[in-house]
Amino acid sequence: MRGEASPLLSRRFALAFAVICATSVAATAQAVRDGNCAARFHDALTKLSDTHLRELADARAALTAADGKLAGNWMFFKREDRLKARLAARLSDGPLTQGEMVCAQSTADRGGRVRCLKWVDKASAPARPIADVTAARDMPMAKAELALISQLTRIVRSRGLLEEFDKNGRFIFLVSRTSDEIGDYLRQPLRPGLCSGATEMMGFYDTSFAPMRKRVDEFRQLTETARSWVGREARRLESDEARAAGVVAEKSAPASTAAPDLRNPGEIMQAVARRHFGEAAASGIAAAPDLLTGLARFEDVLMTPEPPAATASATATVTAPPVAPTTVAATTSTNAPSVERAPKTEAPPSLVPLLRAIEAFAYADLAHGKVRRLDDAYTSLMRGVTDAHAKTCTCGE
Known about the structure:
Elements: H1 7-63, H2 79-90, E1 97-98, E2 101-108, E3 114-121, H3 130-138, H4 143-157, H5 172-186, H6 198-208, H7 210-244, H8 265-277, H9 279-286, H10 291-303, H11 328-335, H12 352-392
Antiparallel strand pairs: 1-2, 2-3
């Protein structure tokens, strides 16, 4: 009959309808699963934003934060000494020459440039320029150590602020742009395709951050150079003091005094303070919260008045000079109120090279710690995003 449907067509329609319904249900289920994955990933990104972005911001702020407690200049490396060292390094390969003339006497100007004061014929030139001999004797520093001091001086003057990350510094755009873009990524609204491209995005930012990681490694190398310098100066001081005392340098230390770790400038400084100024000074330096504060306390010890040699017996019962100069009067008035004491104005010459090396290490370590903190914050954030993506974006598996 015309009005009746063919049984074959009815079966085909039913089968097609069933396939369409099944496909629709599967697509809906996949969409729900994808939505759940995106939602879980979004929640994870929100948590990372609340924690890791704060650490990232604090690390960035630390890079351009000056420490008001720092003096803004070298404690144990005065400007005139730096000029002498620069002159000695400049002339270490031989005197200045100009055609058939050779410099017999030279100096360094205010900018550290070497300037010849007296030119003579090569035939009548002294074996070694006067200024070269004087500078080399007064400031025996290697070129590598002088280069280290030159690189750190800007950090010293800025009281720990790293200018290359501040205002128009060469890393400010990289750090600011990357931080802002990652922040925008973590705070983006929920959307179905949130899981897509997360791994590639983090890889892009990780590659973009490579110049910063190179700078971190450069500061690490500066720190290790300074650490090696401290170790060499500590061994030199120990050998010189042993030789002056008429003992063998290899002789072991007394059982009551543990030898300092030559890789630890803080321990070396405490040991020197204990050996030269007593346990009270060493304890005060050991209690300092950081190495630069310990150096400042060491400088206070050096500035502490001491009795003239002729009246040393009158103050034999006085304890070792304390760390804070303001407590000296109370200590000495009880034991020797009538003794006049002259303040020290500089460190003993034998200690100066070691103290300079420790100060250089302290500033290098300060700078390295700041850039490493930023690198750690970035690394932790990147790892957090990739781990969250791996745990939550599993709907396509």
